[in-house]
Amino acid sequence: MYEVQGRTFDTDPDQARQPYRHPQPVDCRPEIVLPDAVPTDERIWVPTQENVWFRPLCLNASDGYWTTMLRVRKSGVLSRHRHPKPVHGLVVKGSWRYLEHDWVATEGAYVYETPGETHTLVVDDDVEEMITFFQVNGAMIYVDPDGKAMGYDDVFTRIDLCRRHYEAVGLGADYVNQFIR
Ligand code: FE
Asked: 119 CA distance to ligand 1 centroid (A)?
């Protein structure tokens, strides 16, 4: 046994590798494991605007957030939007920037978008494709250049969009259910 900050841990490898031997809590929802977070099956990508797609990873209806891979190709623009809650992003491929900032998010970068931010995501002409993991909390409020609200997305509009897309491409509306928690 050894102790770190008042907690004790097993040093015996047989003990350390012994699995938890009780059932998970009854209200605990099943985990999601997607081996193809960046899928090759084109049908899984849900189009939202010209040259913009997302693929759902976790659509958390009970906690009001969603995680996705966002894919934007050459010259794509993700509509100007405001965040009431934080966003976490990790760039998996390519690069992108916001019209409102002077930095560029490049492959491997982590980005924190702070509540209250309004911005417009663009992919420049010299980038064939960018793919970024995003956790979006609450909502995205689409606004005009003066901040006037034009529309929104939340986890429920995302689920609805996925349902319609998967039905249309032949995967069936229920294909989205595996991502919902
Ligand atoms: Fe954003």
From this structure: 6
